[in-house]
Amino acid sequence: MWSPQERSTSTSPCSDGHPSTSRVFVDSLSMADGAPLRIWRGAVLDEWIDYNGHMTEGFYGVVFGMASDEYLIRMGFDEHYRASTGGSFYTVETHIAFIDELAPATPLAVDTTVAGADQKRVHLFHELRGGDDGVLAATQESMMLHVDTRIDRVAPMAEALYAVLQADADAHAGLLPAGTTGRAIRAVGA
User: Fold this and answer.
1) How far apart are CA 98 and CA 64, in angstroms?
2) Separation of alpha carbons 20 and 44, rounded Å
3) Contacts of 49 (CB under 8 A, 6+ apart)
4) Which domains does the chain have, with CATH numbers?
5) Which residue of 22, 88, 122, 134 is surrounded by the most CB atoms within 10 Å?
6) How are beta strands 153-154 and 135-148 bridged, if at all?
7) What's residue 90's pLDDT?
8) pTM of the prediction?
């Protein structure tokens, strides 16, 4: 059975097949200080540039996906957890707001806030910042469900993992201004 003592605390990147961007990890495994977690850094790769000369929309999603993965892995959702529990997270909904363009080679950082967690769900809010001055380029809200892949059903996560996620959610309570999460696309003509 998985326990928090068995999770990896290495500060080196995982071998996960993601594009070769640099990643920097925090020193602690939880957010006891109550600030958003900066767990992923990289730079805009040339292959992410579209015909308009800036990062194309799909790669914003790639960056946010890498940030979600890194957050969960650092909190204990690692290869050992997946193998020993059959548990995995499936993203069921995201909402990206594009705020600023990102040019080739622009340094990137993602700040992650845990907007909420329960036994079966984790709700993340990411802020993608670009350049040396950290200008807000995009945000993503993401809802993920914990699934037991052995039965292909939503199922409670291991208590130890839930405790870490809930501690971060508690530490982040009140960080996001009202109306930041839960937004929908406004219909044309509305």
Assistant:
1) 12
2) 11
3) 55, 56, 104
4) 38-172 (3.10.129.10)
5) 122
6) antiparallel
7) 98
8) 0.82
Buried/exposed 62-80: b ≥16 CB within 10 Å, e otherwise: bbbbbbbbbbbbbbbbbee
pLDDT tens digits for range 128-143 = 999 999 999 999 999 9
Q: State the Cα–Cα distance between residues 79 and 46, nearest whole angstrom.
A: 30
∠ Cα 168 131 22 (to 5°)? 65
Using alpha carbons, select from 99, 128, 102 the residue that is nearest to residue 50.
102
Other C-beta atoms closer than 10 Å to the C-beta of 158 total 20
Looking at residue 189, what is its pLDDT? 85
CB atoms within 10 A of CB 117: 24
Instruction: Identify the band that residue 12 occupies on the pLDDT scale cut at 50, 70 and 90.
Output: very low
CB of 64 closer than 8 Å to CB of 142: yes
Q: What's the CA gap between 129 and 168, in Å, rounded?
A: 21
Measured distance CA(61)–CA(34) in Å, rounded: 25
CA distances from residue 131 to 3, 17, 43, 138 in whole angstroms, order as listed: 38, 25, 9, 13
